[in-house]
Specification:
Four copies of one chain form a homotetramer.
Chain A: H1 6-26, H2 42-50, H3 53-78, H4 85-98, H5 101-111, H6 117-143, H7 158-178, H8 183-197
Helix pairs in contact in A: 1-3, 1-4, 3-5, 3-8, 4-6, 5-6, 6-7, 6-8, 7-8
Chain lengths: ~210, ~210, ~210, ~210
């Protein structure tokens, strides 16, 4: 049988948690101390810090988005009992993409104020679309014929979660495309999606 | 029901522990090797290292403060049995703010010896005030009507902890404001608060 | 008796997991934001990003390889019940070598496009050969006379895993040597080995 | 009562494990890719890498020493059942000092080849002496009147471990002082101590 035991599914979840926790903390490197020459008084330091506003916004959106992805990953594993080799590789792909978030965050923060803002915003949104796509595929695979679900699986809101992941893919892809016209819309979409994705209910009886 | 199960509260706690452990270790980047040109003998290396004293002090205060925040976070979760979506978002906000500590630590270390010292000290203290504020709100939310507490909840020192968090918010905010007159006072307040916060007793019967 | 208890074997495994998770996430530092001067428009940013293709390929191979090493480490511990001092030191050596992967990855990404490509590719492959060698030694030590195996040990595919690790050592060493003629072959070998190593079955009754 | 419950002692141990795992992995930053200008052929890259030998040695000693400290920390917690506030602060101090190892490692690697080698080697050894001192104090505190020990505590080799930690403090302090005459002796002492400390037996009946 190609199933993992429950304890092994747990271990993959723990490993994933570690990667999520490190990625969310590595975002800290977005916050850079202004160079000493730029700040010779409280006023000039305040100004130098103020000019870093794209970094703060990018930090905030990426932090909350990784937190929400972690939360949904956790909620998904909550209703899953087993795992198999293919599901584990989907999970590896998810971690690989999540680990790229600090890179696209850095791109967005550095370029949102330059003529290259459209591309940086588009890549930022496109990565989120890809991550949502992997979550969509993982969910479809786990729930087809209740393949990997805990019993009683009937309580799991399979269809509503499926739709939510699909909505995420479409919204992020749309934001990526629109970035070439309105780069700042991406930032707004990023914030709205955090609120939307935090509301997903995986289970009929409890909100987790 | 909007409650988390106990095991899920545990998982949020484990994730938080990971973020705390990484943040406390990232402080290490405050300690920088002096550039090779600055040190051509044991004496010049000693001097170059000595000139980094603001980094050592900032490292020490931030390390002990994060350790104490972790400890109080842990003590809070010790008397909590359940969790809900709102409490979890408070916890996410706490982690976001704690992850900024390496940034304000770096600011303090770089600017405490420059004319911009007041602003760097004020921001350093203000972040600690914000973190204390979130802990205050979390504690109020968890203990209102014994909402998330373990039974028997009567033993929990609700009011005394509440006061302590309020004292923290006020002291740190006061230190942030006073930084504009006496920047070095912040450092002293930071040290005193570590001792104060390490003494909090959450439970009548045992000190944890 | 020189054996570890089962719970202590678990703790070594958890510590190893932490190191694997951090190493796999530190690979993110391969992905560097192009300098602002290099990109004054969407086109020039796209070009600057495109020129970093060796970084993306090196990131991808290293990420998947660490993931696969973690997976095989996990599968090995799954069939092991005990541990002793010598096995623990083999494990420490494994972690030391895995922690060097971000360094050789960085070497490969920086030099694959320069006249020094052969050496960087050879070192990259040679480290993987060394890691496979340690896994081979660990497996031999654990399975000799079923020394550290869980019962019933008869179900463990001792010989087939042994062969697989030996194949890995030989293939990676071969790729390291051939790098001096065909440096890009290493990249191909790295990709093929990820697929090969993901297929290993440690146990007759289940695929884990 | 001022004791921690067993589960809380476990949580402090898990937090410490996280800090150890991150510190040991951050040592990777000692291994730096030579700058592209330094290497225009396989030969020049090989030479540039060879010139980094102090980094490799410093990496090796620090990695194995942190591993051994972790191991002894783990062995100590194995025979400890309870914890109290003071023991926890000793543990916090231990983590603070261990987190400085990447800094002194970097100092050693950068300066062992310069006229400032004595000071860098002395600081490197002195930090290890300090860490051994904290382990000595922790052990004395935990074992006085069997204060924090698991039952049956009679099997614990209290005196022999106590002596070993004392030997460590003296040896490392001696090496720190001698560094001003023979800086390279530190490196040798560092290697010998790893072997010595890996042999400590905390318990009469089993080697853990």
């Amino acid at each position: 049988m190609a199933d993992f035991q429950e304890s092994e599914t747990l271990r993959m979840e723990t490993f994933s948690d570690g990667v999520f926790a490190i990625d969310i903390t590595l975002l800290t490197f977005q916050l850079k101390t202004p160079s000493l020459r730029a700040a010779t008084s409280n006023q000039s330091l305040a100004l130098a810090l103020f000019h870093q506003w794209p970094n703060y916004i990018a930090y905030f959106i990426s932090f909350t988005t990784i937190f929400i992805i972690w939360l949904n990953h956790h909620r998904m594993y909550n209703v899953i009992q087993r795992s198999d080799v293919r599901f584990m590789f989907y999970n590896g792909l998810l971690l690989l993409l999540v680990s790229i978030i600090p890179f696209t965050t850095s791109l967005l923060a550095d370029y949102i104020n330059t003529p290259a803002h459209s591309l940086s915003a588009a890549l930022y949104m496109f990565l989120f679309a890809g991550i949502s796509g992997v979550l969509f595929v993982m969910w479809n695979y786990a729930t087809a014929n209740y393949r990997l679900l805990k019993r009683p699986a009937g309580d799991v809101r399979i269809q509503s979660i499926r739709t939510s992941h699909l909505v995420s893919v479409i919204t992020y892809t749309f934001a990526a495309v629109v970035s070439f016209l309105l780069p700042f819309l991406s930032i707004l979409v990023g914030l709205v999606m955090v609120v939307y994705l935090s509301q997903l209910k995986y289970h009929r009886n409890k909100v987790v």
